[in-house]
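User: Predict DUF6603 domain-containing protein's structure from this.
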Amino acid sequence: MAELPHPVRVSLLGVLRVAVPDPAAPLIDLKAAFAGQYDSAEPSAFLIASLTGSHMAEVPLNGDVLVLFRSGPDAVFVLSAGCFHPAYPIPRGAPALRRLSTNLAPAPWIQLRCQAYFAVTGNTVQFGAQLSLVAEITGCGLRVQFGLDALIRLEPNLSFTATMRGSLTAEAFGESLSGVAFGLTLEGPSPPGTRWDAGASTSSCSVPRSTSTSAGAILRPLRRPRP
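Assistant:
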């Protein structure tokens, strides 16, 4: 669909399927519904694709992919598969995206869910993942979570932030009996630093602990002695 003469707007809708090696019995079967638009007023262009009913080696795969370009005073370039880093402001014109995700059930009493994202913008590289595991038998079980988020800024100065977190909880009939959790944040390169926190809990008490260090505070330049 197109609107003429000015501003020119061109819209695109469709469905795409990639099936290899054999469409009749594919090992990888990716199905995506996509929509795109070009607008000469700014100018700007975007393309968004949503994976539905897709799988890789019989493992289901879902999520959204976005390409966004805009020029002018509010210029932006975005390539995102599965959303953005939590600390990154979502650019104007970028819709809410579903993370790339898959659900596994290696056994009837085990549920494993994996989520991930990757994004590139004009001055950042972003990626992250979240792993959730639930093992439960007759109302009793374990819940394990692990997550990673990384944000690399290229301008105006190179910097990075990487956060890791995890937890292990024992549950019985909907109640948490005990658990441990941790969090770790790395920052750099100037000054490099580390923050971490950890804790343990039971049904009656909890013991948190946290600390932070900075290499800039530990490594100081040597001074020449006075004569």
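Confidence is low (pLDDT under 50) at residues 215-227.
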